[in-house]
Design a protein that fits this description.
55% of the residues lie in helices and 8% in strands. By secondary structure, it is an alpha/beta fold.
C-alpha cells in the first residue's frame, strides 16, 4: 500500500488528518472546505496536500496523495494546471473574486476536477465575500474550493454556512520541539526547545523565531531578568527591564515568559509537572536559589503586573512597580 503523504508530510493534527482522509475516500470531499487557524500552523501546506490528493492518480483512495504519480509530481511541485491559487495578503478584494469567477467554468485540463485554493480569506472585504457567495452556492460540478483563514469569525454568516470548516491546531509542545530540532539541526537544542515553547506549539512561528536575532536576544534578556530576581536587587531589575519602558507589548510578553519560567521552577520544587518553558538549565539553576513559597509570591507579582498593563499602566511606572514588588517577594 502506498504512503498517504497527507499523513506523513503534515505534522500533528492527527484527528484532523483522519477526518480529511475519510473525506477524500468515496468522493465525499465537500465542494468548499475552510481551513482555519493561526498564521504559521501550516494551512497553506495542508491546502496544497489536499489539492494534490484530489488530483492524485493512485487507484487506492486511502493513499492519496501518493507523492509518486505524475499528477502528484506536478501538484506538489507547484505546476499542475488544474490547481489555482488566489492569495489575499492585506486585502482580498472583489477584483480577485471577479477574475476567478471568469475562469470557473473552464473544464479541468488534466485532472478529475479543478481545485481553487483561496488563501487568507479573512482579509476579504464584505463586497468580495458577497461576490464569492454565488460561486459557493452554485459551484460548477468540476470545481472544488479550499479556503484558508485565521478565523471563521472574520467571514460573513452566509459564507460560513456554505463551507465545511475544520480547525488546524498547534502542536503539542514536545512534538513541536522534536520536529523543530529535526528541521533545524544546527541550532542549540535548548534554544530550539525555548522557541517551540514561546510559539506555543506553532511550528511556523517557531522556525521564524529561530532565524530572528531579535528573538534570540529577547530570550537572553528574559533569562538575565530571571537570574537577577533571586538576588532581590531592585536597581538591577530596573536596569534589565529598562529597554521595555516604551514597549508595553514587549514588557507583557516578557512577563509571560518570566511567568512560564517561574511556573517550571515551582513545578521542580514541588517534585513534578511538565516543563513548559524549554529552558531546563535555567529553571534548574533558579530552583536552587528560590523557595517554593518565593516562586508562588513571584508568580502572583507577574500576574498582577499583567493586570496593571492591561489597565494601561505606563511602561515606566510598570517597570518601577515590578522591580519593587519582585524585590519584596524575595525578601518576605
Amino acid at each position: 500500500m502506498a504512503t498517504n503523504r497527507l499523513l506523513t508530510d503534515f505534522y500533528g493534527n492527527e484527528p484532523l488528518k483522519e477526518t480529511l482522509t475519510r473525506m477524500l475516500m468515496g468522493g465525499r470531499f465537500p465542494h468548499a472546505l475552510l481551513l482555519e487557524g493561526a498564521e504559521g500552523l501550516g494551512k497553506r501546506t495542508l491546502a496544497g496536500l489536499l489539492a494534490a490528493a484530489l488530483l492524485c492518480l493512485d487507484p487506492d483512495e486511502g493513499a492519496r496523495p501518493c507523492g509518486h504519480c505524475a499528477a502528484c509530481h506536478k501538484s506538489l511541485g507547484g505546476g499542475h494546471p488544474d490547481i489555482h491559487r488566489v492569495a489575499g495578503e492585506r486585502s482580498f478584494g472583489i477584483g480577485l473574486v471577479r477574475r476567478m469567477r471568469e475562469e470557473l467554468d473552464v473544464l479541468p485540463g488534466e485532472g478529475r476536477c479543478a481545485v481553487w485554493v483561496l488563501e487568507n480569506v479573512h482579509t476579504m472585504t464584505p463586497q468580495a465575500q458577497n461576490a464569492l457567495l454565488k460561486s459557493l452556492e452554485e459551484p460548477p460540478a468540476s470545481v472544488r474550493f479550499i479556503l484558508t483563514a485565521s478565523s471563521r469569525d472574520a467571514l460573513l454568516d452566509t459564507i460560513r454556512s456554505r463551507v465545511i470548516t475544520l480547525t488546524v491546531r498547534p502542536l503539542e509542545g514536545a512534538l513541536c520541539a522534536g520536529i523543530l530540532a529535526r528541521l533545524e539541526p544546527e541550532k542549540d537544542p535548548e534554544v530550539v526547545q525555548q522557541a517551540a515553547a514561546a510559539a506555543s506549539g506553532n511550528l511556523g512561528i517557531a522556525r521564524k523565531s529561530l532565524a530572528d536575532d531579535d528573538f534570540i536576544r529577547w530570550l537572553e534578556s528574559v533569562a538575565a531578568i530571571a537570574e537577577a530576581v533571586p538576588g532581590g536587587y531592585e536597581y538591577e531589575l530596573m536596569r534589565l527591564l529598562a529597554p521595555y519602558e516604551r514597549d508595553r507589548e514587549g514588557l507583557s510578553r516578557t512577563l509571560d515568559r518570566l511567568t512560564l519560567l517561574l511556573r517550571d521552577v515551582a513545578a521542580r520544587k514541588a517534585g513534578g509537572g511538565a516543563m513548559l518553558s524549554g529552558a531546563d538549565r535555567l529553571t534548574e539553576k533558579l530552583a536552587g536559589r528560590l523557595s517554593l513559597d518565593g516562586c508562588m509570591r513571584l508568580l502572583a507579582v507577574c500576574r498582577e503586573g499583567q493586570e496593571r498593563l492591561e489597565n494601561n499602566l505606563s511602561g515606566a511606572l510598570a517597570i518601577s512597580w515590578l522591580s519593587a514588588r519582585l524585590r519584596e517577594a524575595i525578601l518576605l
